[in-house]
Amino acid sequence: MSERVIVAIPTFRRPKNLARLLEALAALDSGAEIAVLVADNDAEAREGFELCARLAPSYRWPLKAVIAPERGIAQVRNVLVAEALKDEKASFIAMVDDDEWPDPHWINAFLKAQRQTGADVLQGSILFGDKSGATPDIRRVSGPVAMLQGAGNLFLARARLARTAPPWFDPAFALTGGEDRDFFLRLAREGARFAWCDEARAYGDVPESRANLGWALKRAYSIGNSDMRVLLKHRPGAATRAMEAAKILGALLLSLPLAVILSPSPNHRLRPLAKLCRAAGKLTAMMGWRYNEYAVVHGE
Predict the structure, then answer these.
(1) In this structure, which topology does domain 4-204 adopt according to CATH?
(2) Measured by CB atoms within 10 angstroms of the end CB, which terminus of the chain is less buried, N or C?
(3) Strands (E), 74-145
């Protein structure tokens, strides 16, 4: 008997990207029993929801769309998990973002890697092909890992999610990001096993709004800000703050002069500038400030 996999997609105001993703899912080469679940986080325009309603009658796989009325990336992911868990026949939930699209062998690769590793949660590589370096590929060697990097290309055992109390993704990270790292840390404390599957590849393009140094630095600042907020949630206290403050000071002292020295070189200036911005993001998080990266939509 083939395993049942629910492909769960969060979407917000990117109907063209969602259509591309659904087209790629319809071309999957897999013997698994697949169902597709879309959660539209735009309760007003409902473009993603309406697209799925039009496609569902003739779509290759069972296709269901729901509305996630409360705005936020954590909130829409929670709606997806709650809906997917209603299907007691499902063995796995594959989560992919609406600005990505998978390789035809995506599901098969995940299933094979899960059987080999016994992991509760696996992440696949995401390839952007951005030669500017502003959006680097997310890629690692296949096998067990201590921690994962993001929720864009995930394969989760339903049984593990069913044992984890909701909300799975913390709504406090609604527009800032970091909800995925917080989720992984929580699962790790509960004893979950992680693995990477390089063969389960998804692809992403780089919108014009992201293909520049400015966006890369804002992204670095955002990651630093959200990472620090996650750390302070899981390890509160004066000792953590003192240790992180020392690390931030060191990063600022090292990165600032290096950024000045390498500023004329487009090929080498990104790394020190990104480290500088990431340190700045951590510092502002320690001061109680948050950066709402997901208040802006990239792509269409």
Answers:
(1) Spore Coat Polysaccharide Biosynthesis Protein SpsA; Chain A (3.90.550)
(2) N
(3) 92-96, 100-102, 121-127, 143-145
Distance CA(99)–CA(203), nearest Å, equals 9
Two tokens, residue 47:
């473009």
Q: CA 207, CA 210: separation in Å to the nearest integer?
A: 5
Q: What is the pTM of this model?
A: 0.90
Within 10 A of 238 (CB to CB), how many other CB atoms are there? 7
Tokens of 271: 């790394």
pLDDT one digit per residue (tens) for the chain, 300 residues:
689 999 999 999 999 999 999 999 999 999 999 999 999 999 999 999 999 999 999 999 999 999 999 999 999 999 999 999 999 999 999 999 999 999 999 999 999 999 999 999 999 999 998 766 668 899 999 999 999 988 889 999 999 999 999 999 999 999 999 999 999 999 999 999 999 999 999 999 887 777 788 888 898 999 999 999 999 999 999 999 999 999 999 888 887 777 666 666 666 677 888 888 899 999 999 999 999 988 776 667
Instruction: Give the other-Cβ count within 10 Å of 58's Cβ.
Output: 8
Pairing status of strand 121-127 against strand 194-204: parallel
d(CA 206, CA 242): 38
**224: part of which helix (H) or strand (E)?**
helix 213-234
CA distance 181 to 169: 9
| Cα dihedral across residues 165, 167, 173, 175: positive or negative | positive
Angle at 95 between CA 300 and CA 193, to 5 degrees: 145
Q: Residue for token digits 């909701």?
A: 166
The SS3 call for residue 37 is strand
Residue ranges, CATH 3.90.550.10, the chain: 4-204
Q: Which residues pair with 38 in a beta bridge?
A: 9, 65
- Under DSSP, the state recorded for 288 is T
In the numeric block, which tokens belong to residue 164?
């984890």
